Amino acid sequence: MKFLCVECDRQMTFEERQLPGDGTLAAAFRCPKCGRAVALLTNPMETQLVSSLGVKIGGATVPAEPLETIRGMVATGREDAFTEPVGRSDGRTVGLSWSAEAQDRLARVPGFVRGMVKKIYADYAKERGIGEITPAVMDAARSELGLEGM
Amino acid sequence: MPLNIRTYHELTEPDRSGLGEQIATQRRRLAARLAAVGRVVVVMSGKGGVGKSFVTAHLARALARAGRAVGVLDADLNGPTVAGLLEAGTARLVVGEDAVLPATGSDGVRLVSMAQLLADGQPLAFKGPPAESFVWRGAAEAGAIRELLADVAWGPLDVLLLDLPPGMQRFLELCDLLPAPPAVLTVTIPTPESRDAVRRALRAATERRSPLLGVVENMVDGPFAGTAGADLAVEFGVPVLARIPWHPTPDTWAVLAGRLG
Fold first, then answer.
1. Which residue in B has a C-alpha nearest to residue A67's C-alpha?
2. Is there a single domain that holds both residue A60 and residue A97?
């Protein structure tokens, strides 16, 4: 995608990308000769089409995360479809899991801090090569990390 | 007086978006991920209900039991079933640094399926403007398939089986995505109706220069009458690799696995 300043007969340079809302994607270009700026605005359908291709107008600034499009676009996905790797002492890598009791206990944590608390327990388990978080693991983490009350 | 406008290629300064290069990078990533895969085989049919997923799952298990490293990608995004047949339908996927680890199913078969990613009983739905979904949904599904190939740490495999949905759309997408046209294993049931549908799929595969491995005729001693397997084999000059009875045994699949090499 290129933009031509017709009056100057110069290729315009990409300046910035914005998501101003309403499903709009804005890409701004400026003429290096006369300084005139124009913005390409896509409608929500066009924005979605660009996202579906897994490309970024203006260029990708960071490498894509694994399954980035799927994880970002699927509306009916499982909340617990993905888990973090835990390196066990036997050299194997397994997925971190939560026992039903641990999940129940986590669900009782107030929603506005639940994500943070979950990450604390997950980091604790990963650092120690623990593959499954149970209430006992949560108790140990609270005690060792001084998290009484969480 | 018309404006004097040059062509895209006449504008030679760097295109910072580099959309073409981003697409090329995606393809290189996919090719690199599959570099250690000996053979990519699509299990396809022009028709639904002939048992593609059933054949895929049991063939994968038989190959694994024969000592092969086998992966299965469930490319039927809207009707994923093969993960359930391999007893890993609800397995959670472990996210690594630059790839997701495949789940491990029956007999050690590595697999990834949309069944593992969707909430229980939910259809595959994408975020986005529903009113124009016909415009972008196909691109979103193709993008999902690309990621399931390129962002999964398949590791060294002797064979990666791709279980396709009915029809030819997914096969054509894969031909565009993969570094080389995939080998094709075709599944049919004996009926003339199935033969005619599978013929179209085989012609599409021939046009794309995919190697045709042969035909698997499924449900041969059931209620379906006909000679579709033999007819297709003669027409396309390929072997009938297996005639699968209604109640196959492990030996049935072992023979098929052996014939695939």
1. B147
2. no
